[in-house]
């Protein structure tokens, strides 16, 4: 009986194999459970691994130069009420003094209450 395994959610390799309850990727070394792959791809994580959600407050962890402008979003800038969107810049937000902007989740840290 032939069972087709899903591709690796990290590198999309088709050479995945199963060991007990885990699926493994020989190319990147990623391990995951069968139902876990779909859940991980839908989650957006910040620079330290916290899961982000719509409405969260985040802090910028690096000075970010804005293309087409001489202004900079400074490290420590607090952004309230983010909205998650698909794409490379996966956070849509409004920064006071700058306006509407798209941020990458790898340059922010979630503010934990």
From TrEMBL:
InterPro entries: YjdM (IPR004624), YjdM_C (IPR013988), YjdM_N (IPR013987)
Domain Protein YjdM N-terminal per the UniProt entry, residue ranges: 4-33
Domain Protein YjdM C-terminal span(s) in chain numbering: 44-111
Protein family according to the UniProt entry: Belongs to the YjdM family.
Entry protein name: Alkylphosphonate utilization protein
